[in-house]
Amino acid sequence: MRLTGIILLWVCLGGTPLLGLGAEPAGATPAAEATAPAAPAAEEERGLPAKALPIGSSQSSLVTSSMVVTWVVALGLIVFARIATRRVQLVPSGAQNFWEWLVETLYEFLEGIIGSKLVNKTFWFFGTIFIFILFTNWFGLLPGVGSIGWGVETPKGFHVTNPLLRGGNADLNMTGAMAAIFMVLWLIWSLGFSGVKGFVLHIFGPKGENTGFIKYMMIVVFFMVGFLELISIAFRPVSLSFRLYGNIFAGENLLESLANTVQHPAWARHVFAALLPVPFYFLELLVGLVQAFVFMLLTTVFTALMCTHDEEEHATEKH
């Protein structure tokens, strides 16, 4: 599946502040904030921050908490894939059995959507993106992610303001990198299957069989509709990245809010912080699976809309 290469590519791009969500430069703290008490500030900033912060006490670090998570998940998947396929057996068992089941299930599902010819060219991407997003989402639910790191003492106890680990897809830079890589590949696949002429005709060309005045009118109509299609294509990476980011970011904030719902007395705070989020952890496991599936399915459909019509036309001509 070329899993190693594609994971490393978007993990590296995911560390780049594509959307300006990186850490603020050192020394950029206003004077008013510098003189404010630490505890009240921490009280106001409950919840997961919108941007991934650099790890450590130094704000000049280039490594963020979400980057660390993506590195760990990527390394884990690569190691597991190597172990599962190290000694391939005719009758699989254990890790090889699970890996083959997962890959074959995804392959058959995608083949039913985009056809055998296209799936042979694109499965390495769609299969990898589903697996990577799924396990990145689930890794963010592990104990310690978001709750271990640097922080300040408050009247209610120690508050983590700069976690060591943060959900990889709760960082817009990561989801934006994956969406950007897909759009580049989508353009390559579209031009490869349709050619430049077919690509332009698919967007601006008239559809259907018409004659006379109606034919020329439909040419004008579909030409104008083509510009709307271009706008839709331009917004695809935005919708893909924000949909995944928004759902994962909201879920992690929900779990943290539930953990901090009860504050007094001290014994109740500890008990309810452990018990209240438990039912929602199962919900977030489902959300992580659904969001990985939705991201893969949308990218698959976008590709099918541009590439599979050629196969359908050839099949029609043969009949």
Structure description:
The protein has helices at residues 3-14, 31-35, 38-44, 65-84, 94-139, 172-204, 212-259, 266-275, 278-318, and strands at 149-154, 157-163. With 319 residues, it is mainly alpha-helical. The chain has one domain. The protein has a two-stranded antiparallel ribbon. Strand 1 and strand 2 (157-163) form a beta hairpin. It starts with a helix and ends with a helix.
How are the strands ordered across the major sheet?
A: 1-2
Continuous helix count: 9
Unreliable runs, pLDDT <50, ≥5 residues? Answer: 18-45, 310-319
Q: For the terminal residues, how far apart are their CA atoms?
A: 34 Å
Sheet having the most strands:
2 strands, antiparallel
Structural class: mainly alpha
Beta-strand share of residues: under 5%
The proportion of residues forming helix, as a percent range, comes to: 55-70%
Output the helix-strand order.
HHHHHEEHHHH
State Rg.
Answer: 24 Å
* Rough outline: globular
- Count of all domains: 1
Total E-strand runs: 2
Average of per-residue pLDDT values: 78
What's the layout of helices and strands?
Layout lengths: L2 H12 L16 H5 L2 H7 L20 H20 L9 H46 L9 E6 L2 E7 L8 H33 L7 H48 L6 H10 L2 H41 L1
Antiparallel strand pairs: 1-2
Helix pairs in contact: 1-4, 1-6, 4-5, 5-9, 6-7, 6-9, 7-9
